[in-house]
From TrEMBL:
<dbReference type="InterPro" id="IPR001264">
    <property type="entry name" value="Glyco_trans_51"/>
</dbReference>
<dbReference type="Pfam" id="PF00912">
    <property type="entry name" value="Transgly"/>
</dbReference>
<keyword id="KW-0812">Transmembrane</keyword>
<keyword id="KW-0378">Hydrolase</keyword>
<comment type="pathway">
    <text>Cell wall biogenesis; peptidoglycan biosynthesis.</text>
</comment>
<keyword id="KW-0511">Multifunctional enzyme</keyword>
<feature type="domain" description="Penicillin-binding protein transpeptidase">
    <location>
        <begin position="298"/>
        <end position="570"/>
    </location>
</feature>
<dbReference type="InterPro" id="IPR036950">
    <property type="entry name" value="PBP_transglycosylase"/>
</dbReference>
<dbReference type="GO" id="GO:0009002">
    <property type="term" value="F:serine-type D-Ala-D-Ala carboxypeptidase activity"/>
</dbReference>
<dbReference type="GO" id="GO:0008360">
    <property type="term" value="P:regulation of cell shape"/>
</dbReference>
<dbReference type="GO" id="GO:0006508">
    <property type="term" value="P:proteolysis"/>
</dbReference>
<dbReference type="InterPro" id="IPR023346">
    <property type="entry name" value="Lysozyme-like_dom_sf"/>
</dbReference>
<keyword id="KW-0472">Membrane</keyword>
<dbReference type="Pfam" id="PF00905">
    <property type="entry name" value="Transpeptidase"/>
</dbReference>
<keyword id="KW-0328">Glycosyltransferase</keyword>
<dbReference type="GO" id="GO:0016020">
    <property type="term" value="C:membrane"/>
</dbReference>
<protein>
    <submittedName>
        <fullName>Penicillin-binding protein 1A</fullName>
    </submittedName>
</protein>
Length: 637
């Protein structure tokens, strides 16, 4: 049974609150946005107040009210909720076009429709809207309805109400809007997606001219004044760049200063961001992900391992501002990208890069009494690999055996020191990256490997300037010695083989040009693809996957999907810099060994290699496979 109009109005008012008037907090005086600059002082964007606030009618410029009514409802103060003349014009238009059009709606009808009714274009819905509009006008004054309209209407790009629109497009409170700016906003409600001030310039100009024409027809604007508006159009501020980065800056400010301070604004923030690197990261991620599949998503984080400065962060392959921030807050399983932290723990305990391991399958007690058998990717097994070879080729079997040797508590504690909390309850499967992490945290956890032993906490804000008080606050880098530098260096040295001979060998050319280390990661059923790598001065990580986890299909691996994106970004970031080798810290020693035995090479060894060790764990015994033979003894005459 159809609802009666008075009952619909009752439901509407109930849904709106006890009273639609001022149902949001009023916009406080002095509310301002937060301006964010990059590390070189280049404009990045503005963080707007996110709360919807109510603007009273006296704070809405008279010219804006006049312009909006002229183009939307010129007889607003004369009709009782419906405009019969407007309806007549609409009916003529309907007959002409042979369909129901949307014309003829008054401000009150638009308010009712946008807030309470569907968008279907039927006669029944129009009658329902008209009846509710007439009842609404009996309950509220014209000024109250107009005030509601300005606070409820959508202005495009996520801006609901005039307060958000004024801030987004012009960085002003409504009462400070110029007449040229009012002209643009008055034309938006007709089609917010097309006519908002950041739409296509031709469309925006066309709609502005429609508004001007109506103002001229009604005698509110002279021909000369119209010409003046054309000569001096309003300047619109650009949309913010680096939306994921700005979202993280906002979250940090809210944590440090409180949500109210962020909403009040009035700050100038200098971020650690490098805008040129950010643009390169956005372009590289977008091109790399979208060439694979339009449904895929991705994220990229790059930071300075010496200071923790987050130089670029992209949380969306399309560069959009979304509630899901894949760079900083989204958590996924890292797969084998966790293994470097495990191997660093093992090396710190005395295991060496040249020690050999059995890669044959093994069973461990599993859930429900069933055995758990870790397996390598595609079921392949290595022939007694060294620890370095097992890391380069990402042996899952060896990684689990290493964790079993190292001990779960020791690994969890070591990863925690590196800034990466892990779920100990996951057991030995932690060696395969089953504990979910954020991309930012994983890249941050690699900093002790790039900057031997030192954890550099990710830093997004360099300094803030309170424009009201003039006070400056510096955000100093947070760098702590958390791990054995020699063990970290040896692990990084092993990781170089990942790019030269291992699961990311497609990056060999770049690795030969620029010393770098890294690790691929591919989760079970190939749902997530990772690559995290670093040079001495830049660490970066890439994640690619689906927001709703599902298999990526054959070939969806960290080496094939994420690593090429990482390489293209790194080429743009460091491609023109002089190659810089990793510097060995105190406590790391280099020994010439026989690759077959792992012991000290002799002159008789057919092949030798340079290997790094933590001092005290290096081999002391000459190679037993190729020991020099003693000279033959001659009989004494």
């Amino acid at each position: 049974m159809a609802c009666r109009p008075w009952f619909l109005l009752f439901l509407a008012v109930t849904a709106w609150g006890q009273d639609p008037i001022a149902r949001f907090p009023q916009l406080p005086p002095g509310t301002a946005s937060i301006t964010v600059m990059d590390r070189q002082g280049r404009f990045v964007g503005r963080i707007q107040p996110s709360r919807r606030t109510w603007v009273t009618l006296d704070r809405i410029p008279a010219f804006l009210r006049q312009a909006l009514l002229a183009v939307e409802d010129a007889r607003f103060y004369e009709h009782g909720g419906i405009d019969l003349k407007g309806i007549a014009r609409a009916l003529v238009r309907d007959v002409t076009h042979g369909r129901m059009a949307e014309g003829g709606s008054t401000i009150t009808q638009q308010l009712i429709k946008n807030r309470f009714l569907s968008n279907e274009r039927t006669l029944d819905r129009k009658l329902q809207e008209a009846r509710m509009a007439m009842d609404f006008e009996k309950k509220y004054s014209k000024d109250q309805i107009l005030e509601m309209y300005f606070n409820e209407i959508y202005f495009g790009n996520g801006a609901w109400g005039l307060a958000q629109a004024a801030r987004l497009y012009f960085d002003k409170n409504p009462e400070a809007l110029t007449e040229a700016e009012c002209l643009l906003l008055a034309g938006v409600p007709k089609n917010p997606g097309r006519y908002n001030p950041l739409g296509k310039p031709a469309d925006v100009a066309l709609r502005r001219d429609v508004v001007l024409k109506r103002l001229e027809e009604l005698g509110y604007v002279s021909a000369a004044r119209k010409q003046d508006f054309w000569r001096h159009p309003a300047a619109v501020q650009p949309l913010p760049q680096a939306p994921s980065y700005l979202a993280q800056v906002r979250a940090q400010l809210a944590t440090e200063l409180g949500e109210d301070a962020v909403e009040r604004g009035g700050l100038e923030v200098f971020a650690a961001l490098d805008l040129e690197l950010q643009k390169a990261a956005e372009r590289t991620l977008r091109e790399g992900v979208k060439r694979l599949s339009p449904d895929l998503q991705g994220a990229l984080v790059a930071l300075d391992p010496l200071t923790g400065d987050v130089l670029a962060a992209v949380g969306d392959a399309e560069g959009q501002a979304r509630s899901l921030n894949r760079a900083f807050t989204s958590r996924r399983q890292p797969g084998s990208a966790i293994k470097p932290l495990l191997y660093a723990t093992a090396v710190d305990q005395g295991l060496t890069a040249t020690s050999r391991w059995n890669d044959d399958p093994v069973a461990y007690p599993g859930a429900g009494g069933r055995p758990w058998k870790p397996r390598n990717f595609a079921g392949e097994h290595l022939e007694d690999p060294t620890l370095a070879e097992a890391l380069a080729h990402s042996s899952n079997v060896v990684a689990v055996k290493v964790l079993d040797r190292v001990g779960l508590p020791a690994f969890v504690e070591a990863a925690g020191r590196m800034g990466l909390p892990l779920r100990a309850a996951n057991g030995l499967s932690l060696a395969l990256g089953t504990s979910e992490v954020t991309l930012k945290d994983l890249v941050q956890a690699y900093t002790p490997l790039a900057n031997p032993g030192n954890l550099a906490q990710a830093r997004t804000i360099l300094r803030t300037h309170d424009l009201r008080t003039g006070a400056w606050v510096e955000h100093a880098p947070s760098v702590q010695a958390v791990f054995n530098p020699a063990a970290c260096f040896v692990t990084a040295w092993m990781m170089q083989d990942v790019l030269l001979h291992g699961t990311a060998k497609a990056l060999r050319t770049f690795a030969q040009e620029h010393p770098c280390a890294g690790k691929t990661g591919t989760t079970e059923d190939q749902q997530d693809a990772w690559f995290v790598g670093f040079t001495p001065h830049l660490a970066a990580g890439v994640w690619v996957g689906f927001d709703r986890p599902r298999p990526g299909g054959r070939g969806f691996t960290g080496g094939a999907v994420a690593a090429p994106i990482w390489e293209r970004f790194m080429r743009k970031a460091v491609g023109h810099a002089e190659p810089e080798p990793f510097q060995a810290p105190e406590g790391a020693v280099q020994v010439t060994v026989d690759p077959a035995s792992g012991q000290v090479a002799t002159d008789a060894c057919p092949a030798t290699a340079e290997a790094w060790f933590v001092a005290g764990t290096e081999p002391q015994t000459p190679c037993p496979l190729h020991a020099p033979q003693a000279p033959e003894t001659q009989p004494v005459p």
